[in-house]
Amino acid sequence: MVQRSEHADRVLDLAREEADRFGHRYLGPEHLVLAVLRDGRSGACRVLGAHGVDLAAARAALGRLVDRGVVPGPRPSDAELLGALGINLEAIRRTTEQSFGGQAVGRAVREATRARRRGVGRVPRTPLRDPPMLISQVLVHAGDQARGLGIGVIGPELLLLGVVTDIRTPWPRCMNNRWRRQLYASVGLPQGYGGAAGPLLQALGVNLDQLERALLVELGAGVP
Amino acid sequence: MSEAAASSEVTQVAAATSSQDPEVGLAAVAALRGLVEVLEALQVENARAKGWSWQQIAARLGVTKQAVHHKYAGRRFGFRR
């Protein structure tokens, strides 16, 4: 099994922070690109730098995508929304986990969000769970690439290669069902959203073929 | 919680729910619904684990036993029939 390196996990944490910075309540491939640039210490960042991309330009480009309606504008977080109703989300999370245990809360979250017959009482999302990660395809592609190249650990370079493959591969049909559409609507994503890393890199004038080749060279150089 | 604190909190909730613009108000209601559904599932599972019948649970939730059974009785996630 291919594991993610600590460096890649740190990039994912930075991606969450970047999403938060834009007031986005989901994590998409576009935030991964920003996170790779912000991390700044990986081969992936060097490759992007060689293509003339820096963090400020990428953030500005994502801001323009917000204006174009490709990605949603800033939205208040669940904690802020519930705070406006006088409800302290953190206190509720803490007390329920203390009383019932984290596992029971996890089961209840799955129960509340699972697909049910006729959708009785089903919610697409709950404030007790982290914002949805819409980068599953990126991670799948990164894993495939790692196996293909015989690399045991997924680092930031493979994550970015996963993003490039994701841009070129249409999301599978299973990503377009009623529940997922509800989930996307609940975080304000436009219909037909399939990751915005493509429009972002296009706006930055990056050629995907060249980027992929440069990343493969970078990975080849890193393999003993 | 003291009575004064409780009543000030109630006024705060009332103010927030009535004076918000729809953009925030509706999103807040959606977040609240997401929270309530999880808390309900948590309490129903807890009650079943303590041997409560569907009828007893339904009476406390203010719904019919068929409704709560339809919603929660399943093979998954440890909810016993």
Description:
The complex is a heterodimer of chains A (224) and B (81). Chain A is globular and about 50 Å long. Chain A is 62% helix and 2% strand. The relative contact order of chain A is 0.19. Chain A has 224 residues and is mainly alpha-helical. Chain B is an all-alpha fold and 81 residues long. Helix content of chain B is 75%, strand content 0%. Chain B has helices at 3-19, 22-49, 54-61, 65-72. In chain B, helix 3 packs across helix 4. The A-B interface holds A 75-76, 78, 81-82, 84-87, 89, 92, 96, 100, 104-105, 107-112, 114, 116, 120-123, 125-128, 186 and B 9, 12-13, 16-17, 20, 24, 27-28, 30-35, 37-42, 45-46, 70-72, 76-79.
Instruction: Please estimate the helix content of chain B.
Output: over 70%
Order of helices and strands of chain A: EHHHHHHHHEHHHH
Give me the side-by-side strand order of the main sheet of chain A: 1-2
Return residue spans of chain A where pLDDT drops below 50 for at least 5 consecutive residues. Answer: none
Content-based structural category of chain A: mainly alpha
* Global mean pLDDT of chain A: 90
Number of helical stretches of at least 4 residues of chain B: 4
What characterizes the major β-sheet of chain B?
none
Structure summary, number of beta strands of chain B: 0
CATH topology of chain A: Double Clp-N motif
| Head-to-tail CA distance between termini of chain A | 20 Å
